[in-house]
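Section 3.1: Structural characterization of target chains.
Under the original work plan, the team committed to producing a structural model for every single-chain target entering the pipeline before any wet-lab resources were allocated. The record below documents one such target. The sequence was received from the expression subgroup and is listed exactly as submitted; it comprises 146 residues.
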Amino acid sequence: MERASIFVLDASVAVKWYSEEKHRDIALDVRRDYMDGRIDLVAPGLLLYEVGNAVRFHPGASETEARKALRALAKMQITTPDLDESVTDTATRIAFTEEITLYDAVYLALAKDEGTKVITADEALYNKLKESRNLLILLKDYGSRR
């Protein structure tokens, strides 16, 4: 049996599962592919907090909606590996080299460690990167595994 492709899930994609935003249909394809076992997803533990914060500040969102989103995301049991010194060192190097936040750099470092790519909807981040752009796939370019 062929092993499912692994991707690092960026919060910019996961938040679309709970909010009406551009490319939501493609984000839902990612979730469906994961739930059906066609792909595997990993993410840093901060994913839950980033998604919760994005839903919290989404126009018109309620406390109940944010709570439901966090519960649903937690139930998905996306793998959140412990970030060892090697990954945090890589994240720090990427953050300084690319002049991006350490939050964003952690996703990239995890992808590098896993030998895969980050699925992101953050086109500004994609366009800003120089050396690490090869670690990203834009959500709009994701092709469902169905």
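Residues 5-141 form a domain with the Rossmann fold fold (CATH 3.40.50.1010).
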